[in-house]
Amino acid sequence: MQIKEIIESSKRHWETALPHLSIDCVVFGFDQQQLNVLLLKLKDNAENWILPGGYVLKKEALDDAARRILKERSGADKIFLNAFNVFGDLNRSEGYFTEYDDDLWHKQRFVTIGYYALVDHESVTPVIDASSEDCRWMPIDELPEMVMDHKSIIENALATLREQIRYKPIGYNLLPEEFTMPELQRLYEAVLGYKLNRGNFYRRIMRYNILKKLDKERKGGAHKSPILYSFDKDNYQKALNEFSW
Amino acid sequence: MQIKEIIESSKRHWETALPHLSIDCVVFGFDQQQLNVLLLKLKDNAENWILPGGYVLKKEALDDAARRILKERSGADKIFLNAFNVFGDLNRSEGYFTEYDDDLWHKQRFVTIGYYALVDHESVTPVIDASSEDCRWMPIDELPEMVMDHKSIIENALATLREQIRYKPIGYNLLPEEFTMPELQRLYEAVLGYKLNRGNFYRRIMRYNILKKLDKERKGGAHKSPILYSFDKDNYQKALNEFSW
DNA sequence: TCAAAAGTGTTGAATGTACACCCATGT
DNA sequence: ACATGGGTGTACATTCAACACTTTTGA
């Protein structure tokens, strides 16, 4: 980002957004192989990547802000969003923009709200916004160097996701509308980081009664066409609200 | 609180604290019978109670702010503190202070960080601070009318606590240094809201290896003197960090 | 002597884990 | 034919829940 652009956006932010408060989104996506996180690279920051983040408008609910930021900065839409933690240490954003004037928006002390989002990898086309040079999926086990405390924010989000998957269904937002049993299992394995037994996984999922078996199969693969499933939205929602699985 | 006092504190806050950001603490305490929450009643608000809350100083870490606020407003010290959620809806603090000027600190739109705290009931003497008329423990199942969304913040905190107790040890901060097995069990029952089987509870707790049996008993009771225990701090900490119980 | 506390035993149900079998089917 | 997927059976271990028995001990 050019200096001029930074100054411009600084003025705009002071007018429209709540100061000292930011939102950072950890966007998880699944590409049938591994779990990925959506990261940006800023124009002025040659080496380090950042989380898609932004600010809360003065008349905007926090959750709406997270949704908007995600849409603007990455193109991701209609997603599962959840505030998972707050990062408010003093030194977390120190040492950045030191060469600028003190009234620069970005030089403030920020308390950031960490949101994690689950999106369907297929339905998201990473959008490179005005201030970014790159926007892409990165596998969670090969994260690049990141700015500030962003790497630990991701780790914190992943830990939260792994806890949640133990007692809440996950998948509705990470998979396409229709998917196969092996795909769902690979998703669980990617999140948890270890292999699951196929038969047991099948029974466990079926027991929760959140799947609808469709009357079609995925054609074109090398072997037997796997049956397609979709989530039963009502039961899925019920399972989300109970904390019993 | 008198109008003059409000205006005074408003000026002070604008100078020292981060705007638009507040902290509310849900302080749980256990009195050997039931689970309580520490609540304040403001001088100017005849009927409604509020959570002990406050603001984040410009050069103060979020967690430190929560600790300070708790100390100042309730006298509670050395406690277990944990940010459990953020409340950032637009209408959550609307409709208050409408009769005041717009530059009144308290009339801002606030995003509040919810902290929950676990304290030893014995070691806390509720302190009535300058702006409060009352400060006292209230049982969680008989909460009074509360201001804004404070009641739902408490419910959210309790739900978090009930989830945590399933896989993390709880008690170190809610009980005195030395306690008996029935006391610990009553705490668990108070948090969960239902009775537990004594023998099974005993074995479960012992299995986690977080208790030290002391060589003394609690004298003076009507019947057999129960054995005193204390927590093994190292193992307790280890159990806190694993998420496996 | 009575009631509470401490500790242990037992039993059946439920759940989790590992493995294996059978069938279907697309190339 | 063969590799993959779908579905089920089974056997073992672990865990949980309910209950009961014993011993200790303070007033």
UniProtKB/TrEMBL annotation, chains A, B:
Which residues are in coiled coils? none
**Which molecular-function annotation in GO is an example for this chain?**
hydrolase activity
Cofactor(s) essential for the protein: Mg(2+)
Q: A Pfam family in this protein? A: WHD_NrtR
| Domain of life of the organism encoding this protein | Bacteria
What sequence ranges are listed for the domain Nudix hydrolase? 18-162
Sorted alphabetically, the keyword list is:
Hydrolase
Q: Does the keyword Hydrolase apply?
A: yes
Q: What is this protein called?
A: NUDIX domain-containing protein
Q: Which species is this record about?
A: Pedobacter xixiisoli
